[in-house]
Amino acid sequence: MNISIDRDLCDNHGQCIAVSEGLFDTDDNGVTVLTRTAGPADRPLATLAAHACPALAITVSDE
């Protein structure tokens, strides 16, 4: 599974952080980042975060 954040689209609304139980956070510069390497068990949270993103900046795909 691959999770990507399109930096050109992300406006740091924080919806992914609110729904992902720690999979996403902001770094010291206020940029949204993944907090860990995501495994198969993270797919539901990643998908939820992608759907919650108002900018559609998160993509979850098979790899």
Automatic annotation (TrEMBL):
<keyword id="KW-0003">3Fe-4S</keyword>
<keyword id="KW-0411">Iron-sulfur</keyword>
<dbReference type="InterPro" id="IPR051269">
    <property type="entry name" value="Fe-S_cluster_ET"/>
</dbReference>
<dbReference type="Pfam" id="PF13459">
    <property type="entry name" value="Fer4_15"/>
</dbReference>
<dbReference type="GO" id="GO:0051538">
    <property type="term" value="F:3 iron, 4 sulfur cluster binding"/>
</dbReference>
<keyword id="KW-0479">Metal-binding</keyword>
<dbReference type="GO" id="GO:0046872">
    <property type="term" value="F:metal ion binding"/>
</dbReference>
<keyword id="KW-0249">Electron transport</keyword>
<protein>
    <submittedName>
        <fullName>Ferredoxin-1</fullName>
    </submittedName>
</protein>
<keyword id="KW-0408">Iron</keyword>
<keyword id="KW-0813">Transport</keyword>
